[in-house]
Amino acid sequence: MSCVRVAVAGCSSYERKGVENAVGMVMEELEPIGIGSGDRVLVKPNLLSARERREGVTTHPAVVAEVVKYLAGKGAKVLIGDSPCNRRVRVEELWERTGMAGVARETGAELVSLDGRSAVKVGSLGEEVYLTPYAFDVDAVVSVPKLKTHGLTQLTCGVKNLFGLIPGYAKLECHKKYHRGKDFSRLLAAVLAAVRPKVTVADAIVAMDGAGPSHGGLVNAGLVLGGKDAAALDAVCAHLMGFKEGEVGHVRLAGKLGVGEADLSRIEVVGEELSRLLLKSFKRPKANAQELVPEFVAKLFHRFIWVRPHFTERCTGCGVCVENCPAGALKMGDGKPMLTPKECIECFCCDESCPHDAVELRHGPLARFFV
């Protein structure tokens, strides 16, 4: 029985030599990766927003730098790019605050904004997805995600990181169209099928649990993981985080549709021994009650089964959440965002994009029984 390989290396901190050794070990275990001299490669980190590296929201620059240097050592021309969820942020601020500007200065890689060009419509798995042309202008895409929890998808790592290949306004439309977890999983599988990264290297040195992907707790997982199959890598990560096999929708669907391996028995893990790496105290994201009941029940009893944002005293009235609400359910009023409940689609983009951790998700009376 042939197996898909996922490499796991221990790495206790972001000290440069340790990261270099961990990334080098992972990449060597995955060779040949099909990238050589003269190839143009897009390295796609998770740059959710312009957050400092110490906050653990974005891929750490030390990991990105070592991936870039490894590829450059093979003679590749490397681009680094992403499309953040906060459309207001200046791209120069994004590069500087996340440390990518420093990576570019150190390695000679080119920084590119994936919002800077018109999206390309691609048919994939029966879905129409709009992707940055950079995904097709290069010879290979290398994904460098951050391991975190996610309120809608349970976890965000290799597969979910590819969502950033959808440019700004198209991303908002996707959140509006695919706002239920099972629908969003279908979209992610379609993006994975359209792009198929050559390799994925995950920063799990410091991971995020609980209220991820932007306001959770930091966990010293001490790992770098890599694989040619992004879904297989996510399946291993889900196992380490305590999810049951098949519990993470986009991983299960990728396996079912044949665009990735989701069966742990068919994944060969090399390097560290998985049984010793389980993150036993890892806090899972709070479930969305609407995902736990049949859709017709959720619609019928929506006035009782809901999850809605509440804006705490930390809110500064910056309006970022309003700009990033795909349903137009938020408007500014009296210096703070005001919600029209019947228009809320519970996509949690407001929570994800808030730079001040000012969004608290509150549950309706019946929803509290499911979470």
Q: What is the CATH class name of the largest domain?
A: Alpha Beta
Distance between the termini: 40 Å
State the major sheet: 11 strands, mixed
Please bin the fraction of helical residues. Answer: 25-40%
CATH topology of the largest domain: Rossmann fold
**What is the count of structural domains?**
2
**How large is the radius of gyration?**
20 Å
Low-confidence stretches: none
**Estimated structural class:** alpha/beta
Using the 3D structure, state the CATH architecture of the largest domain: 3-Layer(aba) Sandwich
Q: How would you describe this structure to a colleague?
A:
This protein folds into 2 domains: 4-276, LarA, N-terminal domain (Rossmann fold, 3-Layer(aba) Sandwich); 289-369, Alpha-Beta Plaits, CATH 3.30.70.20. 30% of the residues lie in helices and 24% in strands. It is built from 13 helices and 17 strands. The chain has helices at residues 16-30, 61-73, 91-98, 100-107, 134-137, 158-161, 168-177, 181-195, 230-241, 249-256, 295-300, 320-323, 349-353; strands spanning 4-10, 40-45, 77-82, 110-113, 120-124, 127-131, 140-144, 146-150, 154-156, 199-209, 217-219, 223-227, 267-271, 307-311, 330-333, 336-339, 359-363. The strands form 4 sheets. Strands 1, 2, 3, 4, 7, 8, 9, 10, 11, 12 and 13 form an 11-stranded mixed sheet that branches. The model has no long low-confidence stretch (mean pLDDT 92).
